[in-house]
Automatic annotation (TrEMBL):
Residues 88-119 are annotated as: Disordered. SUPFAM superfamilies: PRC-barrel domain (SSF50346). InterPro entries: Bac_photo_RC_H_C, PRC_barrel-like_sf. This is PRC-barrel domain containing protein. Residues 99-111 have a biased composition (Basic and acidic residues). It comes from the Bacteria.
Length: 119
């Protein structure tokens, strides 16, 4: 798994920005809104609340899949289709909060998202 999946292509995209509430778009339309965001070095990701589209589910979207960001429009674009996001592993907040299982979840999600990063 490459660490580039966990870093933004453009470091200015997240500097001193609150991304919570931004819409997230994939090829095929909006997938949800940012519920949480991490800006730690080599650990940058978004938690996207998919709302009714994938009922009751959230997705961790690593920063490496982000291909565009419009701060004025509060919009983030990822390099995936809606179906690819839908097929991604579910986000379980308790697994990401626990230090012991976070590494496992990060590896699992990183393996899934690496093909979509740096496209």
């Amino acid at each position: 798994m490459s660490d580039t999946v966990w870093s933004y292509r453009d470091s200015e995209w997240s500097q001193a920005r609150d991304l919570i509430g931004y819409d997230v778009e994939a090829d095929g339309g909006t997938i949800g809104t940012v519920d949480e965001a991490s800006n730690e070095a080599s650990a940058q990701w978004l938690v996207v609340d998919t709302g009714f589209w994938i009922f009751g589910k959230k997705r961790v979207i690593p920063a490496g899949t982000v291909v565009g960001m419009d701060h004025e429009a509060r919009r983030i674009v990822v390099s995936m289709t809606k179906d690819q996001v839908k097929a991604a592993p579910d986000y379980d907040e308790s697994d990401w909060a626990d230090e012991d299982t976070r590494a496992q979840q990060r590896a699992r999600h990183g393996d899934y998202y690496t093909p979509y990063s740096r496209r």
